[in-house]
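Hi Y.,

Following your request, here is the sequence exactly as I used it, all 774 residues.
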Amino acid sequence: MRIKLLSFLLIFTAALSYGQTKVKGKIIDAITREPLDGANIRCTDPACHRSCTANYSGSFEIPCQDCKEIAVTHIGYAVQLFPVSGNLNIISLSPSQSALQEVVVTANRDIVKRSEAPIAITSLSAKVIQDAKPTSIEQVLNKVSGVYMVNLGNEQHQMSIRQPMTTKSLFLYLEDGIPIRTSGLFNHNALLELNMATVKNIEVIKGPSSSLYGSEAIGGVVNFITQAPTAVPVFKLSVQGNDIGYKRADLQTSFSSKKWGVVLSGYYASKKNNYLEFSDFHKGTMTARVDYRFSDKTNLTNSVTWLNYYSDMRGGLDSAMFAGKVFHNLQTFTYRKVNAFRYHSTLTHSWNNNSKTAASIIYRANTIGQNPAYRIKDDYRKQAANWIGKKDLAHGEINSNHFHSYSIIGQHRQKLHRKNALLIGGVNIDVSPSSYSADYIRIKKDTVSKKYVTYQSVDSSLTNYATRINNYAAFMNFEFSPVPKLRIVASLRYDLFHYDFNNHLKLNSFSGSPDTVNRFGRVSSKIGFTYNFSDRTGIYANYSEGFVPPQVTEMYTGVTVPHLAPSVVYNYEIGGWIEIIKSKLSADVSAYKLNSTDEIISVRQDDGSTANENAGKTLHKGIELGISANPLKTLSFRFSGAYSEHQFIEYVEKGVSYNGNDMNGAPNWMYNTEVWYKPSFAKGLRVGAELQYIGSYFADPRNTAKYKGYTVVNLRAGYQIRGLEIWVNALNAFDNYYAYIVNKSAFGYSYTLAEPRNFNVGLSYNFGNLFNKQ
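Below is the corresponding structure, written out as tokens. Let me know if you'd prefer a different format.
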């Protein structure tokens, strides 16, 4: 009897197995080619109901009986159906067109739906970046409403996010959630240290985020998220160049093998014989990332970036040169040189579905050497009613700044059972010894051409000091849903700064500040909520604080050390989003009021001298709007715009009152709009047009002169077939003559000339497609 029963079971099992089909495959992102861990795969046959989940490599296997079609879903991606074939291998998912389904990581230092983040945050996807083919970061960042990154040439820049165009330390730049530079040593050109070839997507938080990320996160936070190892081999080579001297070559390669994943990406760019003389540059950068997965729960990521950069430092054109379209550069020897090295290693462990811990160690080494144009001052100058000094003499300096930085960031994420609560907490320790030196140079000026032609080094040291900057911080983010549709988020962070200053010069020197130790502490908070009326409509509001400690250059340049405290801002914000027509028309809006207090400005003293004090107050308010439309499958439209007002409230600098004035470099209106056409009859073809508008603004804080702003149109076209891609970008297509930024000072006007119309042509080929089974 037992033998008959066993035989029956074997025959029955074999019959079932004969009728089943094992569907195997790998789920990847259609743009980045990265694996989609956690994607859900389900057989659409009502009689089957089989499903499974893709693992960390994107791989899945589902036993189905006569399965002909599967449905694949993943957060942030549209539900897609795929026919089952015997050779099913690679399944590519395209990101969802719905903004409410976007996933962001910068909002709370972990993965969260955009619709659950009570802040103004915008994500620039990998598709946006790949379609634009930017040669510098502002060509994509300026697509974000309320953001204007000022192009100073050769990847140098200023920034404006809920602030005027400025070089001040009001913005925090991250790479995979880790600051590119250390606190207290802000450099407004920090993004030239970025490797654009490894950037996958960009997230921009507008407004203060010090409660999570610490100092300098006042106007906004920009997080550059880099490419992870791909699920399929990628080996892409690119070359491009334009007709005004720019050339660039890129390398991108990536693969995964068992527990290992590798990414190598970088580029070399140069510019020579540009439309403006003495404005050449070159940059080489490379990033290597190696991931190792110990198990399904434990992963180690290591990333190292090297950069070498050199640029002639062009000065601005004066008003006569700008009006006469004279493209001579008065600077013939000024330069900026940067050598940077960054390394971070992050170990992540998931204890279970509700608990995850991450720990990172970071090392940075950075050197900036300059013969800066902005330090050159003519000896011949007006004093009272008379002109004094030599017409053929000017004064300048050569300086160098170097720092090492050692950091540890630890973070734990814990889901709680009640009210869908989530707690994220962590610590951050940063120790950064640095040094700075500046030597005087005597400059010869040609009185006919007005060019600064040569310089002579003399034995005169202006500045020579070392600092040790220690930053200790602890942070916490708590979220919960007391009722359905409502999400409350609160964050808190404490930062302690320790500056140890050691001056190598005598006390009677030009920069003779005595050795000293300074400490600054600050608690930053944020609280907000989101309420989603439906899957397509939601609102949010928040109150947040931001701060920035005194920078080293504000503390120790002079003969005394001023008594300074951190500058603090208080931000009030409301906003919302709506999907008017599902996957076809959506909009988001935000309104804010930001009070900035204790700003550090130079205040005239009773004896006629000046000193830095926490004496400035400014007001910033505005409204930002974004509209995205996909009326046809082949046509897409985007509008990003902002109206803002920036005003001096209490601001008496060097004895001059700007109280009640509009802040300089602060246009009320700015917007960027774009349309793309991707015809169905020519798969792989794209044609796009973009318009950037910057409204008029005051060029000086006294409000005596205005610049009219500008409007510029960029045209882009590209075609991709298999692994081959070609593109042509016509930037400033109508050859508009304008300046990126205009300043007026006691020395006159300074115009940073914009690039004329130029055509950038590129070609890339992905040899990895030869090994991929599509």
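The chain is about 5% helix and 60% strand.

Thanks again,
Q.
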